[in-house]
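hey
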């Protein structure tokens, strides 16, 4: 113990990384980042569809009383949001 403390005090103590968990942690971080982007994109698209519907979508093709652009934005937003939250 004394030797370890002496090496630390003198700046000669080092740590070697030979851990097999580092690549796994990198992969988990990448996957979580993808999920976060998917959820954020889905939420933005869904919110865009809601706002367009609320403020009146531009005139165009209407399906069930709602503009097609609202359906497209809302549907795409739901798909991305669901995929991100379910981890797919």
């Amino acid at each position: 113990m004394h030797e370890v403390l002496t090496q630390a005090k003198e700046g000669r103590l080092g740590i070697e990384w030979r851990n097999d968990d580092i690549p796994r942690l990198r992969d988990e971080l990448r996957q979580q980042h993808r999920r976060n982007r998917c959820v954020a994109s889905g939420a933005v698209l869904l919110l865009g569809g809601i706002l367009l519907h609320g403020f009146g979508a531009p005139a165009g093709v209407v399906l069930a009383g709602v503009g097609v652009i609202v359906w497209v934005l809302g549907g795409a937003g739901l798909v991305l949001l669901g995929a991100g939250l379910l981890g797919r």
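The chain has three helices and two strands. The longest helix spans residues 21-55.
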